[in-house]
Design a protein that fits this description.
By secondary structure, the chain is mostly helical. It has one domain: Four Helix Bundle (Hemerythrin (Met), subunit A) (Up-down Bundle). Helix content is about 60%, strand content about 0%. The chain is built from nine helices and two strands; from the N terminus they run αααααβααβαα. It has a two-stranded antiparallel sheet. The longest helix has 26 residues. It is globular, with a radius of gyration of 27 Å. The N and C termini lie far apart (about 85 Å).
């Protein structure tokens, strides 16, 4: 005998399909106009470089606690290279984000603020009496924090061709380079630990205080790497890499010392000419917030 489906009663709606919790998470969302809303996330490639720089800063602290100061200094240099790459990679791949900018600032505080201060203190500053050693280290650490905070708040009004104060990676490289070059020259100089500590005290204070000055430092951000250059430029780059590979500490340290003094030289030269250097934005170009130094 044939059977027929029962007629659905009027006013009775079918049971709604039960939606699991996981399907609610993975279900796409749409805005008022029916367009699919892109879920929030972070870009992997530039933030991976930032994380690597953060790890180098953490590794430098661990090495300083283990009295392996050369490893700590080289870790700071590697962090500086990685920090310079993350922002450029973000621009080249069009993956800039506010999260990446803030994450980069926090990474810089560890790699170029806390790590160099702790390394230089454990290496030499602890020999000073009357707590002068840790005071100098704290001045450097707080200078790096203030430098990064000021950069984040003034990024829209400062001329992108200049940094307002010594950049924190350059200050960290100056401290790390000083440790490396003194490690090489220490047997020849035959300095007493207290003498070395006072020299370290001066270098640390100079780097920390210069970060919070208004002295302008050339940023190299207006260099166009996509523009064609003469053949001699490529040859000079290869020559510079060869010179650095001969003895990195003895080559890198003078470079960063000259860069640290270049801001003062330009400032006083323009001041003597009656034309103080202005770091206020002078053109209509927008600053890129993907790099926080």
């Amino acid at each position: 005998m044939a059977t027929f489906p029962r007629r659905r009663k009027q006013g009775v709606t079918p049971k709604a399909k039960k939606i699991s919790r996981f399907s609610r998470i993975t279900r796409p969302k749409f805005d008022a106009e029916g367009n699919k809303v892109r879920r929030r996330g972070v870009y992997l490639l530039p933030n991976a470089f930032t994380t690597a720089a953060l790890f180098c800063g953490f590794f430098a602290i661990i090495m300083a606690m283990s009295y392996k100061f050369e490893h700590a200094a080289w870790a700071i240099f590697i962090a500086m290279i990685l920090d310079g790459l993350d922002g450029r990679i973000a621009r080249l791949t069009n993956t800039q984000s506010e999260f990446g900018a803030q994450y980069d600032s926090l990474s810089d505080m560890v790699s170029f603020g806390a790590a160099p201060a702790l390394v230089i203190y454990e290496w030499s500053l602890h020999s000073l009496d009357h707590k002068l050693g840790w005071i100098a280290a704290f001045v450097y650490c707080s200078g790096a924090a203030l430098r990064l905070a000021r950069f984040n708040t003034n990024i829209e009004v400062v001329d992108k061709r200049f940094f307002q104060g010594l950049p924190s990676p350059a200050a960290a490289a100056m401290v790390a380079g000083f440790i490396l070059i003194m490690t090489d020259f220490a047997p020849d100089l035959d300095w007493a630990p207290l003498t070395m500590a006072w020299v370290s005290f001066g270098v640390t204070l100079f780097a920390g205080l210069t970060m919070v000055t208004n002295v302008p430092y050339y940023s190299f951000k207006d260099v166009n790497f996509r523009k064609s250059v003469p053949f001699i430029v490529v040859f000079l780059i290869a020559l510079a890499l060869a010179l650095v590979s001969i003895d990195p500490p003895k080559v890198l340290m003078p470079i960063f010392v000259l860069y640290g003094l270049s801001g003062y030289a330009v400032y006083f030269w323009r001041l003597a000419k009656g034309k103080p250097v202005s770091i206020v934005q002078t053109d209509d170009e927008s600053n890129d917030p993907s790099e926080r130094h």
